Amino acid sequence: MYLLSCQCSPENIEGTGNANIVALIAAILVFIASAFNIYIIWNNNKSNVVSKNRLVWINDVRALMFEFLKEYTNGKDSTKMKNIKFQVMLYMREGVTSYKVLIEKMNKCIEEDYSDKNCDELIKAAQDVFSEVWIRLKREAGISKLNDNRFTRMFESKKQ
Predict the structure, then answer these.
(1) How far apart are CA 31 and CA 36, in angstroms?
(2) 35 Cβ partners below 8 Å, 6+ apart?
(3) Cβ neighbours of residue 72 closer than 8 Å, sequence gap 6 or more
(4) Residue 17: is it exposed, middle or buried by C-beta count within 10 angstroms (0-12/13-18/19+)?
(5) How far is the C-alpha of 72 from the C-alpha of 118, rounded, in Å?
(6) Most Cβ neighbours (<10 Å): which of 41, 60, 72, 117?
(7) Closest by alpha carbon to 61, among 121, 143, 131?
(8) Helix then strand then coil, % of the chain, to nearest 5
(9) CA end-to-end span of the chain, whole Å?
(10) Could you say which DSSP state residue 92 is in?
C-alpha cells in the first residue's frame, strides 16, 4: 500500500504529464521515420528487381537476335530462323510498334534471300527495341531525361 501511495502522490504526478507527452511525441516520430524508411527500402528493392529483369530481358533478346542474324548470314536455315523468331516473340508484348517492326523485319529475312539491306534493317529494328527498353529502365531507376541529357552531353564533349 505504501508503494501505491508514493507513486500516486501529487508531487510525483505533476511532472509526469509533460514527460509522457514528450515520450509520446518521440514514439510517433520514431514510428513515422521507420515507416518512411521501410517505404524507401521497398521502392529501391522494387526498382532494383525491375532493372535487373529488364537487363536480363535485353541480354536474352540480344543473344537471340545474334543467333538469328548468324543463321541468316550463314546459309539460312528457315526452320531454325522461325524457331528463333518464335522465341523472340515470347519476349514481346502485343501492340508495341517497335516490337511489331522487329518481327516484320525478321519475317522479311526468313522469306527473302540474304541482303545487306535486310540485315541492316533488322539490326536497326533490334537497336530501336533495345533503346526503348533501356530508356524505360533508366526512368524506372529514377534517372530523369534531364539528367540523362546531361550525361550524354558530358560524354560527347569528352570525345571531341
Answers:
(1) 9
(2) none
(3) 81, 109, 114, 118, 119, 122
(4) exposed
(5) 10
(6) 72
(7) 131
(8) 85, 0, 15
(9) 88
(10) P
Place of cell 522461325: 82
> Distance between CA 110 and CA 81 in Å, rounded?
7
What tens digit of pLDDT does each residue of 58-67 get?
Answer: 999 999 999 9
- All three cell numbers of 108, joined, read 522479311
CA 16 to each of CA 7, 91, 106, 150: distance values in angstroms, whole numbers, following the listed order = 11, 65, 78, 57
* Per-residue exposure over 67-98, b if at least 16 CB sit within 10 Å of its own CB, e if not: bbbebbeeeeeeeebeebbeebeeeeeeeeeb
| Other CB atoms within 10 A of residue 11 CB | 7
